[in-house]
Specification:
Arc Repressor Mutant, subunit A, 3 domains, three-stranded antiparallel beta sheet, elongated
Length: 475
């Protein structure tokens, strides 16, 4: 049987974290009521004129620098002409001839070791609106809130050969962009989207096969499933003597099935020409040097610092630095006096447990660094014990509550009154003669039952260390 090789390139769209749109002052906030974040510019009204948002250029260039690209210091915008109901102008403002970033790469880890995935270009453009299909009323509704939201499109070379390499590349891109603060890269909200260009060829063949582009991919798991599905579909076609058609396909993750949307367009189909309403962009050497100097501490440097400065194990440093939001929580806690390992333990154990239970990504945690620092201080100051701490942490994880107020409102402070505690312990000793006899007979583990009974009697509010010490003294 013939052996086939998969050839994959990606077009990754990233919504930038600006407060306003790329060519107008409308809000980019996610989740507003339909058509409330709009104006004549982003709805394509005749006579309206675009004005470029400078922050978009800064973010795009910063991503280019972080991905080893050459920055095009004299670039411009072009019009990409096509009709679609969610495209109010009947053209999209994008960059074809002089994209802002070119010829870069990111390095990923594969089973065979490190590999460079080349980046052909990064260009700036505006997002389209959103169509909402109403099957009940048999119609489609248009929401223009997203129209004009600034995007960068990161176009890779066809250097990836498996779903694993694609996911490694996307995770690396997401990490770089999040560390820069250029986007939150939330796939579930559409702020990071990937289109997969895939073809297959016989192993050893020099020419690429016919490629298809798969859209509607909003999670890493969906991307991996779509790649495996499309690879098998193309191989089945070739094995049965049929041809692969160059087309755009839509992936349905629920049915794990893709279907053809339209024949694949080429650049000439869009009739690109320079946008007459926007002046060229000139990036000075001084401005570019400032951007270079403002590049943040990325994962590799941060990981090394956590090991050396914080004394964290390599395993902890590896996991925490995968997600920028977790590094923000850790660093804020340490800056406020918490022990690094204690903070790391709560992030790595309880946070990851709750993340898994809720079915979300670790970078989607919503509790604030301030509340996390307050929470750790409650433990450090012996205000709450570890049992109560788990309850408080879960409430903070779910609703970002102020842990100090939560502890006060629910009367969860640890009871350190030694006289009251001594009376309770004496009752526990009197009511558990077998455990007492076992302990006094040399079974050190028997004290655990007595500690448990005391904690139960104090409704979990006592200090376990104090209970342990007083029990030993009384026995």
């Amino acid at each position: 049987m013939k052996q086939y090789e998969t050839v994959i390139g990606l077009e990754v769209h990233v919504e930038l974290a600006t407060k306003t749109k790329i060519f107008c002052s409308c809000s980019t906030e996610f989740g507003g009521a339909p058509n409330t974040h709009t104006c004549p510019v982003c709805t394509g009204m005749p006579g309206s004129l675009p004005v470029l948002n400078k922050q978009v250029v800064e973010y795009a260039a910063a991503v280019g620098l972080a991905t080893n690209c050459k920055i095009t210091q004299n670039c411009k915008f072009d019009r990409k002409n096509y009709f679609y109901p969610d495209n109010p102008q009947n053209y999209q403002i994008s960059q074809l001839y002089l994209p802002i970033c070119r010829d870069g790469y990111v390095e990923i880890e594969t089973e065979e070791g490190k590999k460079k995935v080349r980046i052909h270009e990064i260009h700036m453009e505006e997002d389209a609106g959103k169509l909402v299909h109403d099957d009940w009323a048999d119609c489609s509704l248009v929401d223009f809130n997203r129209s004009g939201v600034p995007l960068i499109e990161i176009v890779s070379e066809p250097d990836m050969r498996s779903a694993e390499e694609v996911i490694a590349y996307l995770e690396k891109l997401r990490m770089i962009i999040q560390y820069l603060g250029a986007s939150d890269c939330k796939l579930n909200e559409g702020s990071m989207r990937a289109d997969v260009n895939l073809s297959v060829r016989e192993v050893g063949a020099a020419e690429f096969g016919t490629r298809t582009e798969t859209k509607n991919l909003n999670s890493f798991k969906a991307i991996a499933r779509a790649i495996e599905n499309e690879r098998e579909r193309q191989i089945d076609l070739l094995e049965s003597g049929q041809e692969v058609v160059q087309e755009t396909r839509r992936w349905d993750d629920t049915k794990e099935y893709s279907y053809a949307m339209r024949s694949k367009e080429d650049a000439q189909d869009y009739r690109y020409f320079p946008d007459p309403d926007l002046v060229p962009i000139n990036i000075s050497d001084e401005w570019l040097e400032r951007l270079k100097s403002e590049q943040p501490e990325f994962r590799d440097e941060k990981k090394e610092r956590y090991i050396e400065e914080y004394g964290l194990p390599e395993y902890d440093a590896n996991l925490l630095t995968l997600y920028k939001p977790l590094t923000v929580l850790l660093e804020a806690a340490v800056a406020n006096g918490s022990k690094p390992k204690e903070a790391s333990n709560w992030l790595m154990v309880e946070t990851m447990r709750l993340v898994k239970e809720k079915g979300i990504e670790p970078d989607e945690v919503k509790f604030s660094a301030d509340n996390f620092s307050k929470f750790l201080k409650l433990i450090d100051d012996n205000v709450i014990n570890k049992t109560v701490a788990k309850e408080v942490f879960e409430a903070m994880f779910n609703d970002d509550i102020d842990p100090e107020k939560y502890v006060d409102e629910h009367e969860l402070k640890m009871d350190n009154n030694t006289d009251d505690l001594k009376k309770i312990i004496e009752e526990v000793i009197a009511n558990n003669p077998k455990a007492v006899a076992d302990y006094q007979g040399g079974n050190q583990k028997a004290i655990g039952a007595l500690v448990g009974q005391t904690m139960k009697a104090t409704q979990g509010k006592a200090n376990p260390q104090m209970i342990n010490q007083m029990l030993r003294e009384l026995l």
